[in-house]
């Protein structure tokens, strides 16, 4: 069985991590021979979304995790049924993950958002953990095990192989999916979080150079029956949100040093009802889907619940052939371009886009069905934590030496060059807004804008610039970088 995949690719080069989350995959089988079942390669390197066909054997539903190298080259990926290597073949010993009856009936990909997550070993750049789960009890719709598997990239001529598989980390009754991770305050280790079903208890694991710790538990917030939905840490790790429409939305503070949640804020189901959430790049805004509506919360407000703002209502657009399906608002993810992408809740050709997610109210600019991949996909988004997050500077756990601050490695690339005033820049993701300025040959500023925190690329359209030589410069609080380009 073969399929054509969506590959959203962002070439880059930043320390050990800049390109690590730059590929998004989704797609259906092309076995039917119908063109609408071929899904596209979306390549942002050209400065816009260029659609090409990229055949791969794996197909996806709602379960997807992948990881790339520092240059954005896809290393391996999974749909919950098996792990594929960079060639698209099953990785050495990569079959047979997630042993359960549920897994066996979904060889085309599991229906479990955020149920898989790749994390590099803190002290070995050739090894990776896959943290994963499935449905172990189809009657109660719950997971009974949280697993880890280990991938060694020195095997099989650099294509990698699985050396430990389906090792049990937690054996308990767990809510399905919603595996989230954030860097420890030391900037090296990782916290991994999941939730125990029918309780208000979170399980927490710490990944260090010594391995994966025994789980600890914290009971806080509301009791959560079986659910699906999404959980996310804010990009800086200071906040955590848990959302499913039947049981409401919760927002917590999080301490990256201790791993403790605190100060829960609860929005009951009659306040907001949906399945998807995402934080803005600046950590101050949270978005929540509600089927035919999209809401925004101001996390800097003294009353977060009262800050709820309706920012979009479904515009009655249908996507696909033969009339298509409605493009509602469902799952969300913050992408490397600093925008939030939203699935439609159905098999469609489109994603919605929140173009300016740091902005309050309708200034966030929701572009409904703004990304057309021209082929069907089924609500697929990758589960990518913020791989770029560094230490919590000045905290008691900022104790590891030898980690260079990212500001010392500021990079800037511009493509194409020459251009017509329409181009793309790629740059180092940082925990601050960078400033982009464009100057003409006389040193006069002809364009300026802020770049979102943690973003890695922006498409720039300055418009009718006169032909000539220009300079683009980005500035952080610690350094700057510039590049010359020619407008023809």
Report the sheet with the most strands, covering strand number, pairing sense and barrel closure. Answer: 5 strands, antiparallel
| Shape annotation | globular
Oligomeric state of shown chains: single chain
CATH class of the largest domain: Mainly Beta
Unreliable runs, pLDDT <50, ≥5 residues? 1-6, 9-16, 38-52
Description:
The chain has 488 residues and is mainly β. The chain has 2 domains: 3-378, Methylamine Dehydrogenase, Chain H, CATH 2.130.10; 406-487, Immunoglobulin-like (Sandwich). It has 1 helix and 39 strands. The relative contact order is 0.12.
What are the defining features of this structure?
four-stranded mixed β-sheet; five-stranded antiparallel β-sheet; single chain; disordered N terminus; Methylamine Dehydrogenase, Chain H; 2 domains; globular; Immunoglobulin-like; 1 helix; 488 residues; mainly beta
Summarize, please.
The protein is built from one helix and 39 strands. The strands form eleven sheets. Strands 14, 15, 16, 17 and 18 form a five-stranded antiparallel β-sheet that branches. Strands 3-2-4-5 form a four-stranded mixed β-sheet, with no helix packed on it. A four-stranded antiparallel β-sheet has the order 10-11-12-13, with no helix packed on it.
Write the layout of secondary structure elements.
Layout (H helix, E strand, L loop, with lengths): L2 E2 L1 E4 L13 E4 L13 E4 L6 E4 L1 E2 L8 E4 L5 E5 L4 E3 L15 H4 L11 E6 L2 E9 L10 E10 L8 E14 L5 E4 L6 E6 L3 E10 L2 E2 L3 E9 L5 E4 L5 E6 L3 E7 L6 E7 L9 E3 L5 E5 L3 E6 L10 E5 L4 E2 L5 E2 L5 E3 L5 E3 L4 E8 L11 E13 L33 E4 L6 E6 L6 E6 L5 E7 L5 E5 L6 E8 L4 E8 L1
Parallel strand pairs: 2-4
Antiparallel strand pairs: 1-6, 2-3, 4-5, 7-8, 8-9, 10-11, 11-12, 12-13, 14-15, 15-16, 16-17, 16-18, 19-20, 20-21, 21-22, 23-24, 24-25, 25-26, 27-28, 29-30, 30-31, 31-32, 33-34, 34-37, 35-36, 35-38, 38-39
């Amino acid at each position: 069985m073969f399929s054509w995949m969506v590959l959203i690719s962002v070439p880059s080069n930043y320390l050990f991590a800049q390109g690590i989350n730059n590929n998004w995959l989704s797609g259906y089988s092309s076995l039917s021979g119908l063109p609408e079942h071929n899904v596209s390669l979306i390549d942002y390197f050209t400065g816009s979304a260029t659609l090409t066909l990229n055949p791969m054997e794996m197909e996806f539903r709602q379960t997807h995790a992948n990881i790339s190298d520092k240059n954005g080259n896809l290393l391996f990926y999974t749909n919950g049924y098996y792990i594929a290597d960079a060639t698209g073949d099953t990785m050495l010993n990569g079959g047979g993950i997630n042993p359960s009856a549920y897994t066996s009936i979904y060889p085309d990909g599991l229906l479990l958002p955020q149920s898989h997550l790749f994390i590099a070993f803190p002290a070995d750049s050739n090894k990776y953990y896959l943290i994963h789960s499935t449905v172990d009890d189809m009657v109660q719709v719950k997971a009974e095990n949280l697993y880890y598997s280990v991938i060694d990239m020195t095997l099989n001529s650099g294509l990698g192989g699985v050396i430990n598989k389906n090792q049990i980390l937690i054996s308990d009754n767990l809510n399905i999916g919603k595996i989230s991770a954030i860097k420890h305050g030391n900037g090296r280790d990782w916290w991994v979080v999941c939730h125990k079903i029918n309780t208000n208890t979170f399980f927490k694991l710490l990944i260090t150079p010594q391995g994966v710790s025994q789980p600890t538990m914290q009971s806080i917030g509301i009791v959560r029956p079986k659910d699906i939905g999404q959980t996310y840490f804010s990009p800086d790790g200071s906040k955590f949100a848990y959302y499913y429409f039947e049981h409401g939305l919760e927002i917590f503070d999080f301490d990256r040093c201790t791993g403790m949640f605190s100060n829960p804020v609860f929005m009951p189901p009659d306040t907001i009802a949906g399945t998807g959430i995402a934080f803005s790049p600046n950590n101050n805004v949270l978005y929540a889907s509600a089927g035919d509506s999209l809401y925004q919360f101001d996390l800097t407000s003294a009353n977060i619940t009262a800050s709820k703002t309706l920012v979009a209502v479904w515009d009655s657009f249908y996507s696909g052939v033969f009339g298509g399906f409605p493009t509602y608002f469902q799952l969300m993810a913050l992408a490397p371009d600093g925008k939030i992408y939203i699935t439609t809740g159905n098999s469609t050709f489109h994603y919605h886009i929140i173009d300016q997610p740091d902005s309050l109210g309708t200034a966030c600019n929701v572009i409904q069905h703004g990304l057309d991949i021209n082929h069907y996909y089924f609500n697929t988004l990758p589960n990518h934590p913020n791989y770029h997050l560094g230490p919590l500077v000045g905290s008691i756990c900022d104790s590891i030496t030898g980690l260079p601050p990212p500001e010392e490695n500021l990079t800037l690339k511009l493509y194409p060059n020459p251009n017509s005033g329409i181009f793309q820049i790629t740059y180092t993701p940082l925990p601050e807004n960078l400033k982009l300025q464009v100057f003409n040959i006389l040193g006069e500023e002809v364009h300026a804008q802020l770049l979102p925190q943690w973003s890695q690329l922006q498409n720039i359209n300055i418009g009718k610039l006169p032909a000539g030589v220009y300079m683009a410069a980005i500035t952080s609080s610690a350094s700057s970088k510039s590049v010359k380009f020619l407008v023809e």
